[in-house]
Amino acid sequence: IYSSSTLANMVFAQESKTLQFTGSENWRITTMGNKYIWRTSTQQGFEIPKLLNWVMGEKKVKAVAMVYVNNDYGMGGLETTQKVLKEKWNSELVYSGATEQKQADYTAELSHIKRAKADAVFAYLLEEEASMFYRQVKKMGLNVLLFGPNSGISEVTIRLGKEAVDGVYGMSGFEYTAPEPNSQRLAKYYKEKYGSWPDNEFMKGYNSIYLPATGIQLANSFDKEKVAEKLRNVFITPKIQPNIVGGNLFYDEVGDLHAWDYL
Fold this sequence. Notes:
Order of helices and strands: HEEHEHEHEHEHEHHHEEE
Low-confidence stretches: none
Mean pLDDT: 95
Distance between the termini: 22 Å
Largest sheet: 5 strands, parallel
Radius of gyration: 19 Å
Strand content: 5-15%
Strand order of the largest sheet: 4-3-5-6-7
Shape: globular
Structural class: alpha/beta
């Protein structure tokens, strides 16, 4: 799941031609020529432009600030956000602040955001940090549009942040509330078995079981090269793989997933 881990370990998997399925979202992972890796999540280079289309286009936001976790996931999010704002919206962040994992106090970052007079804050953080950040935004009384990636609106974030997450927007392809039959069926099963709703990481992990199974089925072989070939430029529908969640999934030539995202 963690981009920093994947960017390190994918080199060894590639050397042994081991098929690797990852929920990591850093945009660089599928630009390094590794033909043995696939994403179970849409990458940040696809998600962030969609989210900014809504923020800048529909909500007419003029001043965006960003806080991001200081690892490959967060830095990839920052790079993508800066690029999209500049190239599509002729804009730039009024403030960007790097934060650390397990950080508990965001007073300094929020003070900078307040001084920058931001209309919206892109909280590109992991679940625990996002929940604490939202709490402190509400406590400080900042009147800003809060939005984040899938980690910013996950079940874990909501459980930890409680009422502080009310009004936060985000985008994700794999949510139990998505209007997609298999996602809802799986979520119902999970709820009955474990007593809570699944988060998007569970959905991604679930698909990582059925993706290699689909490749083996399409190749009619356990040969790694044949399976890898079948999982490139492939359109996977529930008819081809009845257990897949997320609806129709397309995998391109580098292993990037193209799928529906939901606001």
